[in-house]
TrEMBL record:
InterPro entries: DUF6350 (IPR045931)
Pfam families, sorted: DUF6350 (PF19877)
Protein origin, superkingdom: Bacteria
Organism: Arthrobacter sunyaminii
Ranges annotated as spanning the membrane: 25-46, 66-84, 90-110, 122-143, 149-172, 204-233, 270-288, 313-333, 353-380, 400-422
Keyword terms, alphabetized: Membrane, Transmembrane, Transmembrane helix
Protein name: Integral membrane protein
Length: 428
C-alpha cells in the first residue's frame, strides 16, 4: 500500500528513499544549528565576545547545538577558580523549550518522508535520516571540544537521536494516519484475534494509562499556570534585574530567549513544588511550599519570581495534584472501561465490598502511572549546571514521583466516586 502518490516526470529518476532521508533530516540539523548560531553571531558583532575569534565562536555554537539536544558537556576550570576546589563539572541542564526546535523540524521531515514512501520501504528513509543525524552529532561533538569543554563523541551521536527520532516517527505516523499504513501491521486486526478476556484486560490497562496521562497533563498544566502567575506578580522585580544587568539589546534578547527555552524546565520544577517535594537551586537548598532555604543565586531575571514558602497560599498549592487526579478519575468514569470492577463484581456478589476495592485499586494504578510520568518529566527538566554548588538544580525525581502518585491516587478515588453525580443530567 502506498502512502502517497508521487508525481513522476518522464526521463527523471526518483530520488532514492535513503538519500531523501539524508536530505530531509540534514536540513533539520542545519536549520536548528542556524537558530543557535545566529544569536551568537549577533552578540559577537556587538563585541560581546571580545576574547573569541570566529573559530572559537563556531565551537561555542556547536556546543550549544549539542546542549539543546540534551548532550552533557564536561567543563574544565583552572585550578583555584572554584571555591570547592573542583577542577571540572558536568553541564547536563539543557533548555527543553529549545529542544522543541529540532523535534518539530524532524516532525516535518517525518511527514515528508512518509509522503514519499511505500509501506514496506519507509525504513530506508528513516534509516538514512537517523544515520545522517548521528554522523552530524558525532562530528559536532568531535570538532566542538577544546581544552575547556570536552564532549563524548558517542553521546553526541546517540543522544540527539532521541528528540530527532521522536519527531521523525511521530511526524511519519501523523502523515500515514494508521500503523498499518506506516509499518504494514494492522494492530486492530491483531487485537480482534485475541480472547474476550484479553481484550477487556487490555482495554482496562489502556484506559488506566490514558487516565494517568490525563492526571500528569493536568498537573503540569496547573504548574504552568503557577509559573505564569509568579512571573506576572514579580514582573517589577524581573525588570529591575534586567536593568541592573544592562546587557544591551542583543544581550537582553539572547538572555530572554534562553529563559523562554527554560520555561518547560520551570514547569517541571513547579511540579515538584506543588507536590510538596520541592526543588533545589544548588546543593543544600530547598524551595517547597513548607520551607524555603536558598543561598546566593546568579543574577538571572527570572529567579526574581521564586516562591517563598511558609504561607497559607503556598500550602494550598498541594491540592493541585489532587485536583489533577480528580480530573483523571472523572475522565476514567466517562471512558467506561472499568472492566476490573465488572470482573470483581461477578466473582464477589457483595457490592459494598467490590465497589470501594475496585475504586481504590483504580486510584493506585492511575496514580502509579502519573507518578512514573512525573518522575520522568522532573528528570529531564533537572540536571547540573556544572559550576560550584549548582551541580544540583531541579526537583528530585524519586520523591516528586512518589508524592504525585499518592496525591493523584487520592484525587482519582474522589473523582471516580463523585463522577456519577457530576454526569447526572437535569430532567424537565
Amino acid at each position: 500500500m502506498k502512502l502517497f502518490t508521487r508525481p513522476k516526470t518522464p526521463g527523471v529518476l526518483p530520488m532514492p528513499l535513503w538519500l531523501q532521508g539524508v536530505v530531509e533530516l540534514g536540513q533539520a540539523a542545519v536549520l536548528s544549528a542556524l537558530l543557535v548560531f545566529l544569536p551568537l553571531i549577533g552578540v559577537w558583532f556587538a563585541d560581546g565576545f571580545t576574547d573569541r575569534n570566529f573559530a572559537s565562536l563556531a565551537r561555542l555554537g556547536g556546543q550549544g547545538w549539542l546542549l539543546i539536544h540534551g548532550v552533557p558537556l564536561t567543563l574544565t576550570f583552572p585550578a583555584g577558580t572554584l571555591a570547592s576546589g573542583a577542577t571540572s563539572g558536568l553541564l547536563s541542564l539543557f533548555p527543553l523549550g529549545l529542544t522543541l526546535i529540532p523535534f518539530f523540524l524532524s516532525w516535518r521531515a517525518g511527514r515528508r518522508l512518509a509522503k514519499a514512501s511505500y509501506t514496506d520501504q519507509l525504513w530506508q528513509a528513516l534509516l538514512g535520516a537517523l544515520g545522517t543525524y548521528a554522523l552530524l552529532g558525532a562530528a559536532a561533538a568531535h570538532f566542538s571540544g577544546n581544552e575547556d569543554v570536552s564532549i563524548s563523541v558517542t553521546a553526541g551521536a546517540l543522544i540527539p537521536l532521541i528528540s530527532a527520532g521522536l519527531g521523525l516517527f511521530i511526524g511519519a505516523r501523523r502523515e500515514a494516519g494508521s500503523w498499518v499504513r506506516l509499518i504494514g501491521v494492522d494492530l486492530t486486526d491483531w487485537i480482534s484475534r485475541t480472547s474476550q478476556h484479553s481484550r477487556w484486560a487490555g482495554s482496562y490497562v489502556w484506559a488506566v494509562i490514558r487516565a494517568g496521562v490525563v492526571g500528569i497533563t493536568a498537573a503540569l498544566g496547573f504548574s504552568a499556570l503557577l509559573v505564569t502567575v509568579a512571573l506576572a506578580m514579580s514582573w517589577a522585580e524581573i525588570v529591575a534585574v534586567y536593568q541592573h544587568l544592562d546587557a544591551g539589546i542583543i544581550g537582553g534578547v539572547v538572555l530572554t530567549v534562553v529563559e523562554l527555552g527554560m520555561m518547560p524546565n520551570f514547569m517541571g520544577w513547579a511540579l515538584g513544588w506543588t507536590s510538596g517535594a520541592g526543588f533545589s537551586l544548588g546543593t543544600g537548598s530547598l524551595i517547597s511550599p513548607l520551607e524555603t532555604t536558598v543561598g546566593p543565586l546568579p543574577a538571572v531575571p527570572v529567579f526574581a519570581a521564586l516562591p517563598a514558602g511558609g504561607s497559607e497560599y503556598a500550602v494550598a498549592a498541594l491540592a493541585l495534584p489532587v485536583a489533577a487526579g480528580f480530573l483523571a478519575g472523572w475522565w476514567f468514569l466517562r471512558e467506561g472501561e472499568n472492566h476490573f470492577d465488572e470482573w470483581l463484581s461477578l466473582k464477589i456478589r457483595a457490592r459494598w465490598f467490590t465497589a470501594p476495592v475496585s475504586t481504590v485499586l483504580l486510584g493506585v494504578f492511575v496514580g502509579l502511572v502519573s507518578g512514573i510520568l512525573a518522575a520522568g518529566a522532573v528528570l529531564i527538566s533537572s540536571g547540573s549546571a556544572g559550576i560550584g554548588r549548582f551541580v544540583e538544580v531541579g526537583a528530585d525525581p524519586l520523591w516528586t514521583g512518589l508524592w504525585i502518585a499518592a496525591e493523584v491516587a487520592v484525587g482519582v478515588v474522589v473523582g471516580y466516586a463523585v463522577g456519577p453525580w457530576l454526569e447526572r443530567e437535569e430532567r424537565a
